[in-house]
TrEMBL record:
Name the record gives this protein: Adenosine deaminase
PANTHER family the record matches: ADENOSINE DEAMINASE
Cofactor (UniProt): Zn(2+)
GO cellular component, one term: external side of plasma membrane
GO terms (BP aspect): adenosine catabolic process; hypoxanthine salvage; inosine biosynthetic process; negative regulation of adenosine receptor signaling pathway; purine ribonucleoside monophosphate biosynthetic process; T cell activation
Residues of the Adenosine deaminase domain: 1-314
A Pfam family per the record: A_deaminase
Subcellular location(s) per record: Cell membrane; Cytoplasmic vesicle lumen
One Gene Ontology term of the molecular function aspect: metal ion binding
Native source organism of the sequence: Pomatorhinus ruficollis (streak-breasted scimitar babbler)
UniProt keyword list: Hydrolase, Metal-binding, Zinc
Family: Belongs to the metallo-dependent hydrolases superfamily. Adenosine and AMP deaminases family.
InterPro entries, alphabetized: A/AMP_deam_AS, A_deaminase_dom, Ado/ade_deaminase, Metal_Hydrolase
């Protein structure tokens, strides 16, 4: 209302009824949800900073000690970006300033809510022309809240088809395989062998390829598992007792439990914990193990990572390296 941008509904509750959902939707229907509220946020300095700050507040209330949040600076900008997203008129908020605002919001939140928050900048598969700047912003702010670069978006678009993605990651010091000799080329394979990823978001279908799965277990690739998200997006069987994370648990894979798009999925970390406890037989010991995994696979500098691990070991009454 402040910006004169129409939103569905007259109250927060009415708006949430349009944005959030709790039964599986197709990917296009899921993506439509962003169109309801992103035009009201993008290009607004106050909104961008406030959302970063309130994100930290929300995670602190959930009992989180450390969080990494990912976002696309370009999708929040209205200047210095082509095309300008969400049908905005051209303004004066660049991707660079977006990162500055998010960094400040996160730091203010850390100060007030006493947890640690860092960010991951997203390259978007459908906009490879943005990737070089994303990587440069990651390098520029790597000592100021930004800890990693990510590749997000439509997974049917193969990264090897877009030279901008390759060049950007090469500048960032990440090498590429020039040839892929395997007969399959899954999204996980692109991430690991083309972009040399250190973590894979979701990655549930790797269990369907025994050769790939065995190799990723061997190198201790970290999987970011989001049970509630996987249900709502149709990424896995709607029967939680058949979820791939059960196999991850059985094989003592390197994985963690996370929330994904908490606004749209109306979720907290407690919801994901509750799902795996109720439907997948997770015990307190497994929760401890996956949180140690998460800390060990975080993108924090080594000193800060060790401090986080020591905090968890003390809270869990564990001996270091006993995970």
């Amino acid at each position: 209302r402040k910006r004169g941008i129409p939103l569905p509904g007259n109250t927060v509750e009415e708006l949430m009824s349009y944005i959030s959902y709790d039964t599986p939707l197709t990917l296009p229907k899921f993506l439509e949800k962003f169109n309801y509220y992103m035009p009201a946020i993008a290009g607004d300095r106050e909104a961008v900073k406030r959302i970063a700050y309130e994100f930290v507040e929300t995670k602190a209330k959930e009992g989180v000690s450390y969080v990494e949040v990912r976002y696309s600076p370009h999708l929040l900008a209205n200047s210095g970006v082509t095309p300008i997203p969400w049908g905005q008129a051209e303004g004066d908020l660049t991707p660079d300033e977006v990162v500055q605002l998010v960094n400040q919001g996160l730091k203010d939140g850390e100060r007030d809510f006493h947890i640690k928050a860092r960010s991951i900048l997203c390259c978007m598969r459908h906009m490879p022309s943005w990737s070089p700047e994303v990587v440069e912003l990651c390098k520029k702010y790597q000592n100021d809240s930004v800890v990693a670069v990510d590749l997000a978006g439509d997974e049917t678009l193969k990264v090897e088809d877009y030279s901008e993605h390759k060049k950007a990651y090469e500048v960032c010091g990440i090498s590429f395989y020039k040839e892929i000799t395997r007969k399959w080329f899954s999204c996980a394979l692109q991430a690991v062998y083309v972009l040399k990823a250190e973590r894979v978001g979701h990655g549930y279908h790797v269990v369907e390829d025994p050769e790939l799965y065995k190799e990723l277990l061997k190198i201790k690739m970290h999987f970011e598992v989001c049970p509630w998200s996987s249900y709502l997006t149709g990424a896995c069987s709607p029967d939680f007792t058949k979820h791939p994370v059960i196999q991850f648990k059985k094989d003592r894979a390197n994985y963690s439990l996370n929330t994904d798009d908490p606004l749209i999925f109306n979720s907290t970390i407690d919801k994901d914990y509750g799902i795996v406890k109720e439907h997948m037989g997770f015990t307190e010991e497994e929760f401890k193990r996956v949180n140690i995994n998460a800390a060990q696979s975080s993108f924090l500098p080594e000193k800060e990572k060790q401090e986080l691990l020591n905090k968890l070991y003390e809270a869990y009454g564990m001996v270091p390296n006993a995970s």
